[in-house]
Amino acid sequence: MLKKELRQKYKALRNQLSENELEEKSLAVANKILILPIWEKIYFHIFLPITEQKEVNTEFILHLLSGKDKEIIVSKANFATLKLTHFLLTDNTKIKKNVHNIPEPIDGIEVPSIKIDVVFVPLLAFDKKGHRVGYGKGFYDKFLSECKPDVIKIGLSFFEPEELITDVFEGDIKLDYCVTPDSIHTF
């Protein structure tokens, strides 16, 4: 399927989820993450969910990371340059929704992409080869290309993979894992 078709399909599927299903599935995803071989790493980048888009609620994962004393990094999007700036999440970090309803840090201690060990990647859909479909702006492909070569890329999805995304580009960066409420897919 084409990315455009997949965006429509998975936005519609997400919109059908009740608040209760959203929370249950998000918790199931967080519980699956516990068995991934990532816990010796230190710097974890996580997205803060756009609740209006019914994204995986990463609050459960934030609690896991915090409980394991990991350094947690969140981003701020610049829609003019389509780049992300990364900040350490601390008790003093102020979060505010931008015009696209993305919760972001207002400011803080900046962290270079190259320092990040693990990235939890938002997505709408993914395929059995580890390719993902996001919202189409390319923020994460740019960001992941700036990370160290061995950064661990983990997609989070409520749904199982499509067979194949047919319009994958050279600049699209594949996932290492994708975690769903029912499975861990390794690529």
From TrEMBL:
Gene Ontology biological-process entries: folic acid-containing compound biosynthetic process; tetrahydrofolate interconversion
Record flagged with keyword Nucleotidyltransferase: no
Binding site for substrate: I50, E55
Protein origin, superkingdom: Bacteria
Cofactor: Mg(2+)
Any GO molecular function: 5-formyltetrahydrofolate cyclo-ligase activity
Binding site for ATP: K3, K4, E5, L6, R7, R132, V133, G134, Y135, G136, K137, G138, F139, Y140
Enzyme Commission number: 6.3.3.2
Pfam families: 5-FTHF_cyc-lig (PF01812)
Gene3D superfamilies, A to Z: NagB/RpiA/CoA transferase-like
UniProt KW Repeat keyword: no
Keywords from the UniProt entry: ATP-binding, Ligase, Magnesium, Metal-binding, Nucleotide-binding
InterPro entries in the cross-refs: FTHF_cligase, FTHF_cligase-like_sf, NagB/RpiA_transferase-like
Catalytic reaction list: (6S)-5-formyl-5,6,7,8-tetrahydrofolate + ATP = (6R)-5,10-methenyltetrahydrofolate + ADP + phosphate
NCBIfam families: MTHFS_bact
Family assignment from sequence similarity: Belongs to the 5-formyltetrahydrofolate cyclo-ligase family.
UniProt protein name: 5-formyltetrahydrofolate cyclo-ligase
Source species: Flavobacterium urumqiense
